[in-house]
Design a protein that fits this description.
Layout: H1 3-7, E1 14-17, H2 23-33, H3 42-46, E2 51-57, E3 60-69, E4 74-82, H4 91-105, E5 110-113, H5 120-125
Parallel strand pairs: 4-5
Antiparallel strand pairs: 1-2, 2-3, 3-4
Length: about 140
């Protein structure tokens, strides 16, 4: 399905909370959206997540977001991804808004998101504030996970 065809079907994107979704579908989405993507095992991540959501167009996964958490009141929005052919149609916004709603209902008090300079305005429109934080890169990343 092309983006031009999707334009004719405005409003037909379906958003599902924690749907059964195949590794192939998610890895295909991430490969299309991120040139540097390496195959991942999403199911193992989902077992540790607070919630994940998918956006569908005619049963094809075209968007994804995951909320991981500390087991208490802090959540972290990760892996927001929209297929390049479907960007600019509000899918990312809808996924984040729905993730915020679910996290709030489940008792999360704050939700953080990492974003680059080109994404600041997008996240600000959704109520996120920039905060100073630090990160330390580790070498212990397992391949394929």
């Amino acid at each position: 399905m092309t983006a031009r065809e999707a334009e004719r079907d405005v409003g037909v994107f379906e958003y599902r909370v924690a749907p059964p979704v195949s590794e192939l579908s998610l890895n295909t989405l991430f490969s299309a959206a991120r040139g540097h993507h390496r195959w991942r095992r999403f199911a193992s991540m989902h077992r540790r997540s607070l919630v994940y959501l998918c956006a569908y167009y005619r049963n094809q996964v075209v968007g994804y977001v995951n909320v991981v958490w500390d087991g208490g009141t802090r959540g972290f929005l990760v892996d927001l991804t929209v297929h390049p052919e479907y960007r600019g149609r509000g899918i990312g916004t809808a996924l984040v808004e729905r993730a915020v709603e679910v996290a709030n209902r489940r008792g999360v008090g704050s939700l953080r998101a990492e974003f680059g300079p080109d994404e600041v305005e997008f996240y600000r429109r959704l109520g996120f504030e920039s905060v100073d934080a630090g990160v330390r890169r580790l070498e212990g990343v397992r391949r394929g996970s």
